Amino acid sequence: MLYNIVLIIVGLVLLIAGGEYLVKGAVGISVKAKLSKLVIGVTVVSFGTSTPELLVSLQSASEGLPEIAIGNVIGSNVANIALVLGVTVLIFPIPVARNTIRFDWPMMMLASVLFFVFSLDLNLSRWEGLILFLLLLGFIIFIIFNTRKTTRLNKTESPEIEALTAKISIWKHIGFLLIGLLGLYFGSNWLIEGAKSLAVEAGISKHVIGITIIAFGTSVPELATSVVAAYKKETDISVGNLIGSNIFNIMAVLGLTAIVQPIAVAENVLNYDMYWMIGIALLLFPMMIFGRKIGRFSGVLLLGLYITYIITLF
């Protein structure tokens, strides 16, 4: 018991430190590469913070534990919007970039709906996983080219940050990014190991473990990164990271996992948890549209929904 608690605490410390370095490296690289911070948030940071979900889902599917593989992704996607974004906007209300509404949110909805449609036969096949992953690659290529074009038209999006990062070499920024990813990797692993052991001792089902304990554990990187980004007022990375992470969770994590090992989908997941995931993603749209800022009231509403969802599971 004490060993698991220590693992959880050390994991959390590593995740917070990893989030700090990840944001620092991502901002520096975005300026050096003449890309917007939103693109870095949606791609590099999102992939980095989705690594725990990928590792957990691959391991769970290979060990014949589809409940954990699917529950991990759905639970993480619900937590990213309802919990992580909720907490983040309570710290600092987030203005919403135009491209987030035009490109990123629609892509997140497309990924969610495709996941639902592909799961109707209670199985996610190799071909369906391949389709999800190829669509993700196309989306990444599109937003990189689109943002490079926009950045050239606007010359620069943040002269102050550019002046500061110009003094630091690109290799140092990459070093910060790698340190951050390592912190997130080991921190999330230790947090998951400790939390899962505690949950098993308490006699909780695999489905609930996957969709709550493990999903929360794998969402802590997003929470740490987004809170640090919000505190530093790097709100493009904060929003881009969360929406991008949900896209990666479905299209990369489940896509790659299904390519390696087709995943069975339980009926209760299709008829209950999937609706929560899609419903919360839909709710995000009016929050972004009205006032072009996600405020503290929205944060309270999102947190309330997350708590309600968790209570209903138990």
From TrEMBL:
Gene3D superfamilies per the UniProt record, alphabetical: NCX, central ion-binding region
GO terms classed as biological process: intracellular calcium ion homeostasis
A GO CC term attached to the entry: plasma membrane
Record flagged with keyword Membrane: yes
Protein's cellular compartments: Membrane
Stretches assigned to the Sodium/calcium exchanger membrane region domain: 5-144, 173-313
Membrane topology type: Multi-pass membrane protein
Protein name per Swiss-Prot or TrEMBL: Sodium/calcium exchanger membrane region domain-containing protein
Species for this entry: Brumimicrobium salinarum
